Protein backbone atom coordinates (compact mmCIF):
# COMPACT_ATOMS: atom_id res chain seq x y z
CA UNK A 1 0.00 0.00 0.00
CA UNK A 2 1.24 3.42 -0.87
CA UNK A 3 1.39 6.33 1.54
CA UNK A 4 -1.27 8.17 -0.46
CA UNK A 5 -3.70 5.27 -0.14
CA UNK A 6 -3.09 4.99 3.59
CA UNK A 7 -3.72 8.72 4.04
CA UNK A 8 -6.87 8.47 1.92
CA UNK A 9 -8.15 5.57 4.05
CA UNK A 10 -7.32 7.50 7.22
CA UNK A 11 -9.15 10.61 6.08
CA UNK A 12 -12.18 8.61 4.95
CA UNK A 13 -12.18 6.77 8.29
CA UNK A 14 -12.16 10.03 10.22
CA UNK A 15 -14.96 11.37 8.03
CA UNK A 16 -17.05 8.26 8.71
CA UNK A 17 -16.46 8.55 12.45
CA UNK A 18 -17.62 12.16 12.39
CA UNK A 19 -20.57 11.40 10.10
CA UNK A 20 -21.81 8.61 12.34
CA UNK A 21 -21.19 10.22 15.73
CA UNK A 22 -22.03 13.92 15.32
CA UNK A 23 -25.83 13.50 15.01
CA UNK A 24 -26.01 11.37 18.15
CA UNK A 25 -23.67 13.56 20.18
CA UNK A 26 -25.28 16.77 18.95
CA UNK A 27 -28.81 15.71 19.86
CA UNK A 28 -27.57 14.40 23.20
CA UNK A 29 -25.95 17.75 23.91
CA UNK A 30 -29.12 19.67 22.98
CA UNK A 31 -31.30 17.44 25.18
CA UNK A 32 -28.82 17.82 28.04
CA UNK A 33 -28.89 21.59 27.64
CA UNK A 34 -32.70 21.67 27.68
CA UNK A 35 -32.81 19.47 30.79
CA UNK A 36 -30.16 21.64 32.47
CA UNK A 37 -32.17 24.80 31.81
CA UNK A 38 -35.24 23.04 33.22
CA UNK A 39 -33.26 22.01 36.30
CA UNK A 40 -31.95 25.53 36.80
CA UNK A 41 -35.39 27.10 36.57
CA UNK A 42 -37.05 24.61 38.91
CA UNK A 43 -34.09 24.24 41.33
CA UNK A 44 -34.11 20.47 40.89
CA UNK A 45 -30.53 19.29 41.38
CA UNK A 46 -30.92 15.62 40.55
CA UNK A 47 -27.83 14.45 38.64
CA UNK A 48 -29.49 11.42 37.08
CA UNK A 49 -32.38 13.39 35.58
CA UNK A 50 -30.55 14.00 32.29
CA UNK A 51 -29.54 10.37 31.78
CA UNK A 52 -32.90 8.80 30.92
CA UNK A 53 -34.13 11.46 28.42
CA UNK A 54 -30.74 11.40 26.65
CA UNK A 55 -30.83 7.62 26.37
CA UNK A 56 -34.40 7.64 25.04
CA UNK A 57 -33.61 10.32 22.45
CA UNK A 58 -30.42 8.55 21.34
CA UNK A 59 -32.27 5.24 21.05
CA UNK A 60 -35.02 6.85 18.94
CA UNK A 61 -32.46 8.60 16.79
CA UNK A 62 -30.62 5.32 16.23
CA UNK A 63 -33.88 3.67 15.22
CA UNK A 64 -34.63 6.37 12.66
CA UNK A 65 -31.07 6.92 11.41
CA UNK A 66 -29.98 3.29 11.71
CA UNK A 67 -30.60 2.40 8.05
CA UNK A 68 -28.62 5.45 6.93
CA UNK A 69 -25.75 4.61 9.28
CA UNK A 70 -25.76 0.98 8.16
CA UNK A 71 -25.72 1.97 4.48
CA UNK A 72 -22.82 4.38 5.03
CA UNK A 73 -20.87 1.79 7.00
CA UNK A 74 -21.52 -0.87 4.35
CA UNK A 75 -20.40 1.45 1.53
CA UNK A 76 -17.28 2.37 3.48
CA UNK A 77 -16.47 -1.31 4.02
CA UNK A 78 -16.89 -2.01 0.30
CA UNK A 79 -14.56 0.90 -0.52
CA UNK A 80 -11.92 -0.46 1.85
CA UNK A 81 -12.09 -3.88 0.20
CA UNK A 82 -11.82 -2.25 -3.23
CA UNK A 83 -8.74 -0.32 -2.09
CA UNK A 84 -7.18 -3.52 -0.79
CA UNK A 85 -7.92 -5.31 -4.07
CA UNK A 86 -6.41 -2.44 -6.08
CA UNK A 87 -3.31 -2.35 -3.88
CA UNK A 88 -2.58 -6.01 -4.55
CA UNK A 89 -2.58 -5.57 -8.35
Automatic annotation (TrEMBL):
The chain crosses the membrane at residues 17-39, 51-70. GO terms for biological process: bacterial-type flagellum assembly; protein secretion. GO terms for cellular component: bacterial-type flagellum basal body; plasma membrane. InterPro entries: Bac_export_3 (IPR002191), FliQ (IPR006305). Keywords: Bacterial flagellum, Cell membrane, Cell projection, Cilium, Flagellum, Membrane, Transmembrane, Transmembrane helix. It is a multi-pass membrane protein. The keyword Cell membrane applies. It holds the Pfam family Bac_export_3. It is found in: Cell membrane; Bacterial flagellum basal body. Belongs to the FliQ/MopD/SpaQ family. Role in flagellar biosynthesis. This is Flagellar biosynthetic protein FliQ. It comes from Thermospira aquatica.
Amino acid sequence: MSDGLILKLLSESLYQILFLSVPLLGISMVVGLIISVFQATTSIQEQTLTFVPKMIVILLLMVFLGPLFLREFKDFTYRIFEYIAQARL
